[in-house]
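Please think about what follows:
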Amino acid sequence: MNQKGVLATWNDAKGFGFITPDGGGERVFAHMSGYAGRGRPVASRKVSYSLTKDSQGRQRAGQFQYVGAAKVGASMAPGFWFASAVVLVFFTTLAGLFQQGYVPVSIPAAYGGMSLVLFVMYWIDKRAAQRGAQRIAENTLHLFEVCCGWPGALMAQQAFRHKTRKGSYRFVFWLAVLANLDALGWLLVTPEAMSLRQQLGFDLSKSLQPLIW
């Protein structure tokens, strides 16, 4: 990011703005997907950026971030701490259930492994968005979210500032979270899932013991 300028305008609702280069000349388009700093971009702040071109050959900022005092003043997005708290509580709960023998190790392992995979997928998709390369299909990301990867997705969204402003995506994401948690609850306590629980190494009586006593 060897270019410097001022983020002259920024539309946070739409996630883009324009940078005025220090040396003058045509303004450079900047999209939220290329933001490499903390928090959310704010207009009238000094930035450094790299230049790239979109699919139509037009110049745009590949990556950009605050410099100097603006960089020091940028704060971590509040959503990051919320996501961290949610993921911490969830995995702490799973660890407690495992320690008490209510769930087999395969369940927290599945959430941990799939979360790591999806975290990397979000990073790859963010890089692809910055370069204008082929993206990972949203349906693929949602599928992995349903299949135990949503904690990693939640962290990646805030860590990379990716998929945080598109309302339709966020709606489906939370539906995926609810679907996964509903499936987990079904597995842990419903009589219909008894045979599956036995295959995984825990039974209904042990799962319901705290409720009985």
About this structure: The first strand starts at residue 3 and ends at 11. The domain at 3-73 is CATH 2.40.50.140 (OB fold (Dihydrolipoamide Acetyltransferase, E2P)). Residues 207-213 have pLDDT under 50 and may be disordered.
